[in-house]
Amino acid sequence: MINKRFFKTKDEVEVTFELDAANVDSVVLMAEFHDWQPIQMKKVAKSKSFKYRTRLPKGAEYQFRYLVNDTEWVNDAEADHYVPNGFGADNCIVRTA
Fold it and tell me: Which residues of 50-80 are buried (b: 16+ CB within 10 A; e: fewer)?
């Protein structure tokens, strides 16, 4: 799930990435906006999900994917779009426009 919060007075968008993941030990966000370096997502005990919040520039789009338990690549069902990644799968797109 992706939630976006737009600010009227700032040229940025607060984006929250959330993955429902019961019986999962870890989720890493791999994203173009972070040079494809792993970002450990925080586990939310109440909702049994993992979250990561960041601010991104308005009017842009970025590719990303989730890596679950260091072994399984997962896409976000609510991504704005998908593009082939060259490895036989698709990357998710988040747009801040």
Answer: bbbeeebeeeeebbbbbbbeeeeeeebeebe
Q: Are 80 and 93 in contact (CB under 8 A)?
A: yes
> Who contacts 45 (Cβ-Cβ below 8 Å, separation ≥6)?
none
Give the mean pLDDT of 30-59: 94
Among candidates 67, 97, 63, which has minimal Cα distance to 79? 63
Angle, CA 14 vertex, CA 23 and CA 78 arms, to 5°: 50
Give all domains of the chain, ordered by start, each with its CATH number.
2-95 (2.60.40.10)
CA distance 73 to 59: 27
Using alpha carbons only, give the angle 36, 39, 45 rounded to the nearest 5 degrees: 150
Q: How many helices (H) and strands (E) does the chain have?
A: 0, 10
Q: What is the mean pLDDT of residues 43-52?
A: 90
